[in-house]
Request: fold
Amino acid sequence: MARLKDLPEPMRSHIAELPCPEFDNTPWAQGGKLSQRRVALLSTAGLHTRDDRPFAGMEGDYRVIAGNSRANELVMTHVSTNFDRTGFQQDWNVVFPLDRLHELAEQGVIGSVADYHYSFMGAADPAQMKPSAGTLAGLLKGDNVDAAFLIPV
Amino acid sequence: MGALAHYLEELGIPTTQISLIREHTEKILPPRALWVPFALGRPLGVPNDQGFQKRVVHSALELFERQTGPVLESYEQEAPVSADTESQDSDAWSCPVNLSQPAKEQTSLEEKISAFRREITELMPWYDLGRKSTGRTAVAAFDPDRAAEILCAFLEDRTPEIREYDISLAAAIRISAQDLRTFYYEAVSSQPGAKAPASKEFADWFWTRTAAGDIIKQVKEKCSGESDRDLKLTGKMFLVPMV
Reply:
């Protein structure tokens, strides 16, 4: 489990002491009903398709994952050794639930699934992700996404 | 993760997210977040449980229906205990593959490397079987022999040439070590009748019983003593888990 108090040392202290950016207020973008929204996944698990570049540094860069990607095409090159990868090795949906999104779309719970999804490598300084986030916002709007589902690892 | 939500929301993209470390989310205060009590590395809780995963996804997406925020909800249901997260004492996992020579018995670097390469050869048939059976491997960038060559060349002071990608030696070493762990996990999970080891059991076995674990620890030590900043950081942080 990921309750901070239950993590073993020295990992507990390492995670507890990670600097967190603080913001003066929380922005709030409105949207329509969930059943009409178009959903994209944004992961910070260092995911990319097998023929794309591995995550080699911590520059806040991201990779594009096409919505028709299959499990065998998606790999993980996150820099950290301190989380369990065996779940992803068995089932990509435990990290990147693209199959679950498609099922929810078929059931009418959400409107549709985006054509493109994205992954960062979460150990990067959040401030370094800000320029990429600007680019991403444009790409998401271009894909008519009005619901971004952010998933850490 | 929460900072990314702030950036995107400011630019007009509504976001919701999974939170794994509640204390971080309480500081960052993203617009919508669902804290889950799952292990790091498993934000949807449990592999191969479609219903459980879908309920978590739905709970996070339902936060889009809220009219005001920030919202930080809790998902109180623990992930199901499965064979791959906790073993029962009476049914503890043991490696189904008989590795020919335990790494600890080797002393010289040459012998350790020899034992390491022999392990890969012995595990390869099971890895291949697993790939055929599942149609998938999570090995990302370097096949096992290539990953082993990169690590061994570094240990033997033969600077490995990385032809496949435009990445630093430090990154290639890190990814090689990760890919080898993935290869070992997939191989020992694939013998007919074998079950996937629990993550802790696998980690205990890999780091204490295999030549690969021993080699990666040696690479860590060597990296830590290098003057190159990336190699030093990789040795310190990115090769061997903290626990």
In short: The radius of gyration of chain A is 16 Å.
